[in-house]
Amino acid sequence: MNGENIQPALVVLDTLGTCLGGADENDNGHMRELLDSAEDISRAFGCAVLLVHHTGKSEASRKPRGAQALADGVAMHAYLHGDGRAYGVLDCTKQKDGEPFEPIRRMLHRLDLGKGTASLTFADDFKTGPRENKRRVSWLEMRQCLQGAGIPLLPKVVAEILKMDRKAAGQALREAAQRGEVYQPDEGSGAYALVPGYTPNLAKIAGN
Length: 208
Description:
The protein has three domains: 1-74, no CATH class; 78-129, no CATH class; 139-205, Winged helix-like DNA-binding domain superfamily/Winged helix DNA-binding domain (Arc Repressor Mutant, subunit A, Orthogonal Bundle). Strand 3 (76-82) and strand 4 (87-95) form a beta hairpin. Helix 4 crosses helix 5 (166-178). By secondary structure, the protein is α+β, with helices and mostly antiparallel strands. Strands 3-4-5-6 form a four-stranded antiparallel sheet. Strands 1-2 form a two-stranded parallel ribbon. It has helices spanning 28-45, 68-73, 139-149, 155-162, 166-178, 202-205; strands at 10-14, 48-52, 76-82, 87-95, 104-114, 117-122, 182-183, 193-194.
């Protein structure tokens, strides 16, 4: 491949820690040098540069790990979180030259990369944008949520994904279990999955 013919739209440094080459992520001077290098890449190729980095040790932390110069020097910062199995949420926590984008929620799908390795990828068909808490959700939407996840989900996880009331999610799942549409593969876990081979009346449940 001739490098002179490459015209990327995006260069990803994944992860930042592996690209430091001995530099200290807790050193403000080193992080400024890193950002300057990223800016050089951006100007050379006329593209965006994305730094993939970890947050601090605290589970509640949404700030990038290391020196403050890193958080201060980027034009945009987005925080990716979720349950690591069924769904992911991308929140914009900094946008230098505009309004932060609305949270993006996606179902996660397991992708087999071969040779015994796998990764998680966003599904393009899941809904985005903010939702009101305790909104009314149809059973069809809940069923699609279970189907898209491909794994048993707890009522609270379904409620979090769909931004609905947890009690309403639990009630809907219990009712679906009574009519034989869902079941609990492991009763001790409290998670629900769709019954294989069950054929729902989509026209009927779409109006619920």
